[in-house]
Design brief:
homodimer; alpha/beta; 12 helices; 14 strands; 40% helix; DNA-binding
Chain lengths: 329, 329
DNA sequence: TTAAGAAATTGAAACGTTCTAATTACGCTT
DNA sequence: AAGCGTAATTAGAACGTTTCAATTTCTTAA
């Protein structure tokens, strides 16, 4: 920059002004730009960050990229940040709460502009001075969490199954994250069942790595292809897919005898064989919202939870193309 | 840091020494650490980067995260970099060659320590002074590219099918990246067919978004469940999966009448229904190799291509559990 | 006890920006 | 032509580290 200033015959400050869009004569502007071009000058963002304390970098902390929801999120967050001129530092925790804390520590060390995280550590130590947005799960009372409207998603699933004629329902939930927003899917589902007077059984697996308990339940409650229930809501598409295969194995006809709805609506699972009706999460919208809440530090008061609308999408494991999401619940 | 120095009653330089592991008395070391603790001091990496020109950050540029190969790669690269004390800046190009160039430009501006990229732009402008490793595809004569041993993978596929009794083979290839390392799969496959005197037809789709041409071919060459070929090698598992479904639709029995092998071996596809025999890529190893080549700037001379070993894995769409990868080709 | 040598510590000058207050140049009005 | 207000430019002090030559302190051996 010093060289550019000398080459252009102006002062250091002027070069800085030109590069930051501060007022300058067309002539000087041109002189500086030419000099910079000739010298192949590139601004040094570290020196700049040192002075401004602004790094145009945010950290994205995720448990893994293997689950479709996670890598879709990663892609969407990265894209949205880039659109705003920010870079993404990606960190993977492998569902390990210690690694989560490590990531936070590492990242705070680096004077970044914010953190977007999906973590499982209930008592994460995070510096209150650094903007933080969580996804799917609260971490800290005053930290904004953005997620799908899981509760309403559960309601939609119940409404859809009931509208398609189901009389006896089943809710299946797997996954290790307790007390997360995701947990509300079951609550919404059960609430509707209750109101409508539809019996509903729940099988909830928090710590199990395997689906075996679900399979055992199915085997116990299906006899000669006749099931004791006629509708299942699985809390993820991934699970729904495996349940569908198990049902096929047990000679249960879908959707004739039993109807199935999953949750997520990411192409990866929905288009698999068989494709499954589902509650679609607005991943891209979640990403965009998280980013804009994070970057918008104008309002000092932030919402503590933002739920984004989900919708029901029929893919053949429920009867008909019922547009339940338009129902006024 | 100034405050820490004052608090500990030592000079600025000493504090720096302590934090960088330079020799210091146990006493001073303790004094400095206590002071730092009391003041909640954290080193500022931007100031440090300014001085040392070392940022402990590398950029990872990928077309997308949706393909299993890509997100596995992203995860493995991130983990490996973290293990080495580096941070990962993730950038997604959406297969757009302009965006690729943009990413490179952005990243060069930021004085990072290196770039790992999987790009499609044949004439990417990249600053020779910044360490660069590409994956799956060369970009620039003197830039190191690491990939699976795709040629040998093709050979393995052919060997496996032939060892399982195939007499008339088919090679199917889809994907937009021309002239990449991936392209060598077909070459290896055909070479073995030639040597062994096995007839082999190839259907190569470079620009097609859809599989329709493959389906049309299959429909034309299968009559009443009897196919004119008895073995297929698909250049990805994703494709293999769809071909398998089409074959089922055409009442072709797999593996009895036609055997199928895919390529990639990432859980996402192999465990789908039906699971498919495949050539497994060592994703994690690719990631580790890319990182270590990138970080190891000691040797000024770098290899221009590094091929990592693949292996054949039977999953039921080929007959028997033939361990072809041990064959001495 | 002292001199020499090694080890630890210090002070000040970088690194490449931005920022602020001060200065200079410019265009108008009287 | 002088005076005034505004806009553009400048000089130099930060920002928080590292680095290196110079200095001090500590060890050891004569």
């Amino acid at each position: 920059m010093k060289d550019v200033a000398r080459e252009a015959g102006v002062s250091l400050g002027t070069v800085s002004n030109v590069f930051n869009g501060f007022p300058a004569t067309d002539l000087t502007r041109r002189k500086v730009q030419n000099a910079a071009e000739r010298l192949g000058y590139r601004i040094n963002n570290y020196a700049r960050g040192l002075k401004t304390n602004k790094t145009y970098t945010v950290a994205l902390i995720l448990p893994s990229l293997e689950m479709p929801f996670f890598h879709h999120l990663a892609e969407a967050v990265t894209a949205e940040l880039m659109r705003n001129g920010y870079r993404t530092i990606l960190m993977i925790t492998y569902y390990d709460t210690d690694v989560e804390q490590q990531c936070i520590d590492m990242v705070e060390q680096n004077k970044i502009d914010g953190i977007i995280a999906l973590t499982y550590n209930p008592d994460l130590q995070v510096d209150a001075s650094i903007p933080f947005v969580s996804i799917d799960r609260h971490c800290g009372a005053s930290i904004c969490c953005v997620s799908s409207d899981n509760y309403h998603g559960g309601e939609l699933a119940a409404e859809a199954l009931i509208a398609c004629g189901c009389k006896k329902l089943l809710f299946m939930r797997i996954g290790s994250d307790v007390a997360s927003e995701v947990d509300k899917r079951g609550a919404g589902f059960q609430a509707v069942c209750q109101t409508r007077g539809i019996p509903c059984e729940s099988i909830i697996l928090h710590d199990s790595e395997t689906d075996a308990p679900f399979y055992r339940y199915l085997e116990a409650h299906v006899h000669d292809g006749i099931a004791e229930f006629d509708g299942i809501f699985c809390n993820t598409d991934r699970l729904a897919l495996r349940i569908l295969r198990k049902l096929a194995e047990l000679d249960v006809r879908v959707p004739e005898d039993v109807q199935v709805i999953g949750f997520d609506g990411l192409e990866d699972y929905v288009t698999q064989e068989p494709p499954c009706s589902t509650i679609v999460q607005p991943v891209t919208f979640i990403a965009q919202t998280a980013v804009s809440v994070l970057l918008d530090r104008e309002n000092t008061v932030h919402p503590t939870l933002i739920c984004l609308p989900v919708r029901y999408e029929a893919h053949g494991t429920t009867k008909g193309q019922v547009s339940v999401w338009q129902a006024n619940i």
